[in-house]
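Practice problem: predict the structure.
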Amino acid sequence: MKIINIMNFVRQCDPRIDDSERILYETTAAEVALVKEYGYDSTFLLQYDAVVDPGYQKLFRQEADSHMELGLWYEIVQPLTEKAGIPWRGREGWRWDWHVIPGFSMAYTIEERKKLIDIAMEDFREVFGAYPRTVASWLLDSFTVSYLADNYPVTAFAICRDQTNTDAYTLVGGYFNQAYYPSRRNMFTPAQSAGQQVNVPMFRLLGPDPIHNYDNDRYLTNERYLPYHGCYTLEPVWGSGADPETVDWFFRNYFRGEDLGFSYAQLGQENSFGPALLPGLRMQFEKLKSWPDLCIWKMGDTGEWFRKTYPDSTPATCVSALEDWDGSRRIQSVYYDCRNYMANLFRCDEKVFLRCLYRFDEDVPERYLDRPCQTWDATYENLPLADTLLWEGNKGLVLDTRGGALSLAKAGENCLEVSWGDRQALFTEEGIRVRGLRESFLDAAGCPTQPEAREDRILYCHEGHRYALRVAGGTVAAKDGGFLILSQGAEFTLFPDFF
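Answer:
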């Protein structure tokens, strides 16, 4: 299934912008007119200040029809905290503040979170006649996700793509795209068991670039693209999402490559960017005319489809880019995600390596599970096994230094085979089987988890949580700030494992 969600979210004001109430309203009205002109199904997510604003109420009561879903964009604003009797901690004169304190749910106590949710949901129902089926935000805390899923008819959640030190939040090592069932102890982690699973899927927003989203311009060498700035996503306000050829590239990689059964991307933008977003959004809508096999659905409907299609647990998915923006095949990227781990196999020139590898553990709680965030920013992460962005050692887990072009094939349910010449990496839910290689190397220089070698595994301790990368069919030895993995034959399997 190949699914597009057109999702635009709506703030009532933005104190960073002069005359923001008028600009944001006119931008939203233009987005509404645009989706109605094309006749596409769409989702508009309203922040609480827009929900209670008479102008937005009139706009959406007049314009909403069977093709338009109204949902909740759940950033915390002053009108909501005041109604809940909670002191507003935003900057003076700011009714909305993009810092985690006060703008996101993890900044509040559990009792405050309940009160804020109930008021936002009940007021939404009073204004629009029904509870929202979709609730999204750049960040949602785990208690809020569980409470909404248990008490309201929510069918879809959504959060930001992975990013580091952007705005007020860092998300690293998460499910790359598509959707997963989150753990009750950490909404950023797919659940591994039914008892821990929130049975409402969590989608990733913004259509991240499989090559450049991870480390921005590190591999950006073509001079044509050097003026691009901002985020390497499908967002129509940024260079990559506003360029017609690059948008074609996004669509090809998301919807023509191997996906293991489920491709997904979100189009749309926050109204805070004003009318600058509109030309790119129109261009993307025009592109959709050439993709009749894509299902352009409301986000709430997509969540319902996901639950019917994958009723028991998170499926494995794949997103890849086997050529760069300019058509060259010097750089290639393959993301594999499942309920147990995520991995990004990367090729640059002839080097084939795991650019990042993260283990998922439903028993590792998020930092803000039962206590408020105490800082202006927040971090969500999983358990790192390899990371070329955040570690001083930036070579990753090197599988091959003479690798040819990558090719992909589905190798069974939840299984992906990546081949280069006579060598392969087979990704399954349990681990990664590497064939045709006798030696690999993990660059762990400066790794904050302080890993150590023990016979057939590398042991880690991150934030007090112990886990391992086990090598079946091989041995591990410390070497040159990292670990040498030696195969006992011409095949070994990497298992993200318990300690």
